């Protein structure tokens, strides 16, 4: 088994007397900043004026421009959207670097050569394997979200100590951290979200929903069957793996799982997954996404509008409005960005 790192493997005192600038206060930013502050680390926030700035100030942080926050820090954690990072890095972070450690929560820009940090800085990543709001929520529950860490440049010889101390301060070492490389983190993260977690899942749910509705079944029923119930199934897998889920469902469901699952996700799907992975590895996906951003996202905008019009979204909105308990406690958590 791969070596896992837990709380006992980190020198918590490493960040004592050091100042961490968290750049961005969105999904990840607010969680890292608040968790570190609660762990006794000195944190300042770097932002542009706007919604996140006001939120961070309201939450009691000292907020500066990105350049000012960078200049005064020992460690700079870049938690801006990946597609904004190159520009902000070039214009506001790089000119203010002396020898700070530069950190990321995703390797995209360094791995695909969009950000080339100076050779005199430590460069590393600590990437929690979960949404920012859970990074904060689990920390408050004395739990944590597991993380990956990777060292790209180790000038001081202390990069690993920093990575582990940081991972501990955001609560991730309660769940465990695994050492990786920028390449492995970037490629697997992109593959996971495209093929399974986001892309594969939404396509599966939509295809199931459409099949039922096109066959004349009620859309509301199809929504419950293919989307709503998914959470209950995923929770069981999260707690006990596939066997744990299969233990809880009926034997009929389990038999259907065994014989029908491979008919749905068949050899052709796996071949396509391999092609998707190849596009990621060869930088084709990155190139397309960088170009899409440089041209003001024409394809993204068109697809998003079409997706939002899908019947499953209309039906779901109405049904969820009648189940206010689903989103209870959520409002308070959603900060900063449009998320
Ligand atoms: P968000 O979109 O949630 O937040 C981005 C933050 O950056 C906002 O506070 C936004 O402020 C600020 N920002 C955007 N543009 C600028 C700018 N030009 N100048 C200054 N501030 C700006 O980002 P995420 O937290 O989702 O992502 C951050 C990083 O974490 C990425 O590298 C991502 O891959 C990684 N990551 C994200 C995960 C997640 O859960 N979302 C999971 C693991 C890793 P404003 O209000 O002004 O727009
Ligand atoms: Mg991910
Ligand atoms: Mg990702």
From TrEMBL:
Tell me if Plastid is a UniProt keyword of this record.
Answer: no
| Cofactor binding, per record | Binds 2 magnesium ions per subunit.
Give EC number(s), comma-separated.
1.1.1.86
Which sites bind NADP(+)? Answer: 25-28, 48, 52, 132
Residues where Mg(2+) 2 binds: 189, 225, 229
Listed cofactors: Mg(2+)
Q: List the InterPro entries.
A: 6-PGluconate_DH-like_C_sf (IPR008927), KARI (IPR013023), KARI_C (IPR000506), KARI_N (IPR013116), KARI_prok (IPR014359), NAD(P)-bd_dom_sf (IPR036291)
Signal peptide range in chain numbering: none
Q: Which HAMAP family match?
A: IlvC
Protein name (database record): Ketol-acid reductoisomerase (NADP(+))
The record's gene field reads ilvC
